[in-house]
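Bug #2210: token dump truncated for L-2,4-diaminobutyrate decarboxylase?
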Amino acid sequence: MTDLLARAYDPEEFRKQGHALIDRLADYLGTVESYPANPYETPDASLAAFRKLLGERAGADEIFAGVIDHSVHLHNPRYMGHQVVPPAPLAALGDVAASLLNTGMAIFEMGRAGTAMERIVIEEFARMLRLAPEAGGFLTSGGSLANLTALLAARSRQWPEGDVWQMGSHAIRPCLLVNEQAHYCIDRAVRIMGWGAEGIIHVPTDRELRMRTELIDELVVDARKRGLTPIAIVGSACTTSTGTFDHIDALADAAARNKLWLHIDGAHGAAVRLDPDRQHLTAGLERADSVAVDFHKMLLSPAITTGLFFRDGTDAYRTFQQRAEYLLTAESSEEDWSNIARRSFECTKRMLGLRTFTLLSVYGPELFRDYVVRVGELGRELGRQVRRHPELELFMEPDVNIVCFRFGHPTLSATARDGLNQLIRTTLTESGQIYLVQTRIDGEVYLRCTLTNAFTTSADLSDMLARVASVGHELLQLRGNLRE
Ligand SMILES: Cc1ncc(COP(=O)(O)O)c(C=O)c1O
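Reproduced locally. Full output below:
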């Protein structure tokens, strides 16, 4: 044993570092409004700052302070950027315990506590989201991986004998139908599975970018005529860019008529099932064969924590028909809930369930409902404020906490308006005071907010819109001056 090793594992050193860190984080939470929402810096500046810390052999406390200073502040109510929740602090504490214990979760023998909690979290959320009574599933590392895993299960149900697993799928040419606005990870999943560009059929959308479900039957017939084998429909609840919910009931009808698997990417919006006022948005979710739900978007957990639910929980055992003799010794696909690697892509996995289990136990399911209701109200409020503003244009009435709008001016061409909105976003981002993002809808630039911070107020929203308009005017003025 070296002195250095002994020091790195010393419980008293850990206690000191831990207390200092918790004090620092609690102070941070208490004063986060005084931080800029987005302390803008270039990648090179960030790299230099951390090289300097290492060069100086900075201590733990100095490093943690540096990490806070160089980060975007999700806990600041003026954070309105990407769809990542400021986690409930207790869930973050659980991560410290999980990291220290580091038990991994491939098999029960190794990850007992995590495995038990994960099953309970899945059962509780299947009930809270009102999925089918026989629903089951597991937690996995992100929506992208959950979507890929669900599609592998769909493929496996189509060819249950394992022939695709053994022979590949080039002779069969599988494909799926999806909203062209779906998250890019669906396209990636198709290509990872080796289906190529022909494996993804985009269903045209309506004005609010909802799949036109009445076109599905025709698209399936056409795909079959071309020698493809459609195996699934993927619906979005909701789309990333605009927060649009596909009509799940109509998708479930189309899937049943055409004997296709229905997967719903509910990474962002499936949680609206917890809001009594918004349940219509996901009507039919219980009919989907599989549903992905990101707990790090709308369910208060640190990234990344995703639930993958199957209507028939035993479908999850179809996905991987592989065997790893040293780990999974039970007979092939028989149900074996406690050895999660049988169903999950990951082998070693973090103790993901602890984050949600702690919140469920300490605060109860109402906490999740309160959050979803609150950020949904903020979405509506921002929609109202944009509509009232003479120079701002709302893309669609927000159903959830994603809101897209743009600054317009009657004198601007479409290209100039795009350029101006892009510049507004860059100027605001570089000012650091507000964090919002941008998206393209039908090729045109919109500003996009995701209201993930439950402490954002109506005044924060009006202040943000006033800044958008004022920067818009300044830029227009500058443009006018340059022309003169
Ligand atoms: C609808 C949707 N699906 C999937 C993803 C990817 O999820 P993750 O980042 O957890 O992999 C996102 C992320 O923004 C999303 O909005």
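Output looks complete on our side. The mean pLDDT is 93. Marking as cannot-reproduce; reopen if the truncation happens again.
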